[in-house]
Design a protein that fits this description.
mainly alpha, globular
Length: 72
């Protein structure tokens, strides 16, 4: 979890193009092993995943979604 927090802290300082590049790198690193394919997620959940900083309700919904889809 610390790596995700570090990633969000770094991304906060980037411009739009750089954020897109960082997302691509992150998704390639995940490789579909840690998370189900993001394309299969509901649009609302995808937006919550990338929101910075996420609120309590978004975090709760995201955790429920991930646990419900057997993501450890």
């Amino acid at each position: 979890m610390a790596s995700v927090e570090l990633y969000r802290d770094e991304v906060r300082l980037l411009c739009g193009k750089e954020i897109g590049e960082e997302r691509t790198i992150l998704l390639k690193a995940i490789g579909g092993e840690a998370f189900p394919q993001l394309k299969s997620w509901l649009r609302e959940i995808r937006l919550m995943f990338w929101k910075k900083p996420p609120g309590d309700q978004e975090t709760f919904k995201l955790v429920l979604f991930l646990l419900g889809n057997a993501v450890s």
